[in-house]
Automatic annotation (TrEMBL):
Bilayer-crossing regions: none
SUPFAM superfamilies the record matches: P-loop containing nucleoside triphosphate hydrolases (SSF52540)
Domain AAA+ ATPase stretches: 178-374
Annotated protein name in UniProt: DUF2075 domain-containing protein
Length: 570
């Protein structure tokens, strides 16, 4: 036997015995990957003894009717674990089947000749697709929210360590009755949202554990799939708080597709604060976007804020933030945080975030994600972006194959983004909020007119990246924060300029059109200077410039700033 082959079998009581008749014994004593389905649900596994494993599955998965076994002379345990992980993620990103796997051990391991095996994985996918197992190609699947926000991601070492440590401490606290606050810190692209979703799926899988379920002893999190852990989670209320509307809607859509996660409530901070029932565990994504007290543009939101605070704290106190609501409404909180991604003055103050981190460190509940999962340029690129935007002199490191370009004509950048969209998909134009949103009231109006290009802001505020017209529009920070793109064409508007007389970058308030982004806070007696707002605008552009996994293209409106940045792109 050379290369791989796929055995296609009916799955019934006679299947295990039939597999034992395999003369090559590849179905009894060789590492394989298998797929079980009933036309609606799918389960993917790997084993060294397929015949024996099918005997075990007959007791638990009798509803399954079809079995496919992938065999290859070159397979070893590591390659099978990797293929299993790929197939689970591809199935979860496609919409044909509901994946019923648990999250016991999807971790991203290196092994010998991995690149060669992964070429074979693509061929295996295409054979399964020809069998009708997938409705879309790999590119379409991997560009979808169902894939990017799937709980079936393979974690890197830092992410797996954070999940393991949180589980250890959480079960210890649940057992002792102690309350706890944990913080996971990580920069752009380190996978904070992935860790949150993975952790929720893992907790739900442990809670729904059946003693007859099969877990390999060498799976990373198999030690948690025991009766005593399940008992500690029995009856517990779990919630996932996401401040940004667009990301929250995308996550809710994904959760509806995942067995177990459908009962996890995905909440706004207001909904968490208003809940009549307390939560045992609340995980908060993008916790830096939780809000402090400020006058909100909608009167009804101000009333809700006051009522929540009065109910939880007995009085309407101005020092109470949405962070305080979360802590009052739960016994255990896990905050995912990046202080440098605060983009509005109404976000949690930096000193509050720093105090939260210090508290978690003191309690041994602080975890750091350090490895880049998004940007192919790696951690060096993310650090370089921050330093360049801060006006620091810095040499450009070698970013490998990551595409980084500066343009003098917006039309040229748009053409290149259009080309990358055709090649890879998920190539989008994004910009700072340096133009008023005229098209919101008049759909025929254009918002951004530069170099002969006429463009409009995002036509929807929810799941804009995947909307039908997103390629021809420009996304703002509020529609892309928390998302991945393949290529980002970033427009730095005239809200960020270079002042030759001062010799530094400055903020131009007259060209910044996010009303909430520059509004003073009379409730707390806070007035924000141009220097204060400069820090937030830099954060905005830092976030925009770290969305692209394969590349970032940049157009700078202010000629002086463009020339100041040009040497960094040489």
């Amino acid at each position: 036997m050379t290369g791989f082959r796929i055995e296609r079998l009916r799955f019934n009581d006679r299947t295990p015995e039939a597999m034992k008749l395999d003369v090559e014994r590849r179905l009894q004593n060789w590492p394989v990957v298998y797929v079980l389905d009933d036309g609606r649900e799918v389960y993917v596994g790997e084993t060294l003894n397929a015949a024996k494993r099918m005997e075990q599955h007959r007791a638990r998965k009798r509803q399954m009717t079809q079995l496919k076994v992938v065999l290859d002379d070159r397979f070893n345990k590591s390659a099978c674990l990797d293929l299993e992980s790929h197939l689970i993620r591809w199935f979860s990103g496609d919409e044909k089947f509901r994946v019923i796997n648990a999250n016991a051990g999807l971790v991203d391991y290196e092994y010998f000749d991995r690149a060669t095996y992964r070429e074979t994985f693509d061929e295996i996918f295409e054979q399964l697709r020809a069998d009708g197992m997938f409705t879309r190609d790999v590119r379409a699947i991997e560009n979808s929210d169902l894939f990017k926000l799937s709980p079936f991601k393979a974690l890197n070492d830092a992410q797996a360590a954070a999940v393991e440590n949180i589980l250890d401490s959480l079960f210890e606290d649940l057992d002792s009755g102690s309350r706890s606050t944990s913080v996971i810190e990580g920069g752009p692209g380190t996978g904070k949202t992935i860790v949150a979703i993975y952790l929720l799926k893992l907790l739900e899988d442990i809670r729904s554990l059946d003693p007859a379920d099969l877990y390999e002893a060498d799976e990373r999190f198999s030690e948690f799939f025991v009766g005593e852990k399940r008992a500690l989670l029995d009856g517990r209320r779990l919630g996932f708080v996401i401040p940004q509307q667009s990301l929250r809607k995308s996550v809710q859509r994904v959760f509806r597709r995942i067995p177990g996660l459908k009962r996890v409530k995905v909440l706004t901070p207001f909904e968490a604060g208003e809940s009549a029932d307390r939560f045992d565990v609340l995980i908060v994504d993008e916790a830096h976007r939780l809000a402090q007290r400020a006058a909100l543009p909608a009167a009804v939101l101000n009333i809700r804020r006051r009522e929540i605070t009065e109910r939880l704290f007995g009085e309407d106190r101005l020092d109470i933030t949405q962070l305080d609501w979360i802590r009052a409404q739960s016994d255990h909180q896990i905050f995912l945080l990046d202080t440098d991604q605060s983009v509005r003055p109404a976000d949690l103050p930096r000193e509050v975030q720093e105090a939260l981190v210090a508290e978690a460190k003191g309690a041994g509940r602080h975890h750091v994600l350090w490895s880049q999962m998004r940007v192919a340029g790696g951690n060096d690129y993310v650090a370089w972006v921050k330093r360049v935007l801060a006006g620091e002199p810095v040499a450009r490191p070698d970013f490998g194959e990551y595409e980084l370009r500066l343009y003098d004509d917006l039309g040229d950048m748009y053409d290149d983004i259009r080309d990358r969209e055709a090649q890879f998909g998920l190539a989008r134009l994004v910009a700072g909020y340096a133009w008023p949103w005229r098209s919101k009231a008049d759909p025929t109006a254009f918002d951004i007119e530069l170099d002969g290009q006429q463009l409009r802001w995002n036509g929807t505020s929810t799941d804009w990246i995947n909307s039908a017209n997103s390629f021809g529009e420009v996304g703002s920070i509020h529609t892309v924060q928390g998302y991945d793109l393949n290529y980002a064409g970033v427009i730095i508007g005239n809200d960020l300029c270079y002042d030759e007389s001062l010799g530094r970058t400055v903020f131009d308030r007259s060209n910044y059109h996010d009303a909430a982004g520059k509004r003073n806070n009379p409730v707390l007696g806070l007035t924000y200077s141009d220097e204060d707002l400069l820090a937030y605008v830099r954060n905005i552009y830092s976030v925009l410039m770290t969305r692209g996994m394969r590349g970032t293209f940049l157009y700078v409106c202010d000629p002086a700033l463009r020339e100041r940045l040009r040497p960094h792109f040489a």
